[in-house]
Design a protein that fits this description.
mainly beta; ten-stranded mixed beta sheet; 175 residues; 1 helix; Immunoglobulin-like
């Protein structure tokens, strides 16, 4: 009888542990920053504004360009400003995980940059370049906007390995 009770307890503990870890993102180092400026591994992001938008387009669209169209039942929470790459390395935003977060929800996001003419949204920031940036977070209507942005990345902005941990998490608390 005692063995059965112990087995049931162990099985319940294993199920609980597996269920609780399903959404965890592992990181080696974490920092939290408040204010309008954050330095992420040598990229200095200076926030100019945070706003809600139905669509996200470049400042001066021209010809064919990338944009995020309106999504029924959602809006975009967009933090924008200037990004200066002082890291000595080119950056591919596809290798950076971005999430908007508040006390209740986590929303997936993207990091984008404007091209030189500000006519397109791109994913790369070259060495020594300064460009307009956009953290774009999709938020369900009726839910609160993020109060912070989580920025997950690896040293050298290298691609994330499958099931691996990120080297760094920078949490940008928005004021």
């Amino acid at each position: 009888m005692m063995k059965r009770i112990l087995m049931v307890f162990i099985l319940a503990a294993v199920l609980c542990i597996c269920g609780c870890q399903a959404d965890d993102i592992q990181v080696k180092n974490m920092k939290t920053v408040t204010g309008n400026v954050i330095n992420v591994n040598g990229i200095c992001f200076s926030m100019e504004k945070a706003e809600n938008k139905k669509e996200v387009k470049p400042e001066k669209p021209n010809g064919y360009y990338n944009y995020y169209e309106e999504q029924q039942g959602y809006h975009y929470f967009v933090v924008s400003g200037e990004a200066a790459n002082e890291s000595g390395q080119a950056v591919d935003a596809e290798h950076i995980l971005v999430r908007g977060k508040n006390d209740e929800n986590v929303c997936e996001g993207k990091l984008l940059f404007a091209n030189e003419q500000e006519s397109d949204l791109i994913k790369n920031l070259g060495v020594g370049e300064t460009r307009k940036f956009y953290f774009v977070i999709l938020v369900k209507e009726g839910e609160p906007d993020p109060s912070g942005i989580e920025i997950y990345f690896n040293e050298g902005f290298r691609e994330q390995e499958e099931n691996g941990s990120y080297d760094e998490l920078s949490i940008w608390k928005l004021e």
